[in-house]
Amino acid sequence: MDPLKRNGPDALADAAPGQKQDTYSRHCTRPPLKWKRVLSAFYEGETLNRFEAERSLHDHCLHSTVSTIQAKGVMILRKTERVPGYMNIPCECCRYWIAPESRERARELLGLPKPYSEAANAPEARHVA
Hints:
Elements: H1 23-27, H2 34-43, E1 48-49, H3 50-57, H4 62-71, E2 76-84, E3 90-98, H5 103-110, H6 116-121
Helix pairs in contact: 2-4, 2-5
């Protein structure tokens, strides 16, 4: 098995002498997970149907990714729309977007910091004289 494809503490057991075992984890440049790419797009205000998700995020099964995101506590809204399909024959699909009340949960899942205005109003940020 290729040492870079293994997981766990012995992932680089075959590394060159003197090389630290956690080198791969420190220098890993893996792209974000698919559900995080989609959630990030929703968080930034995008709405997507399956064809747009395929082109822009390389998500071949958006409905499945939406299900994964919803299982993590984020409400995703949807509506059915007709778009041009093969030979311009209309095709029905869903357009998805994040519910406004789920933006906070999405921000938490993405590991983003609180917006400045929210952070400034937090009780621990206020100084009591």
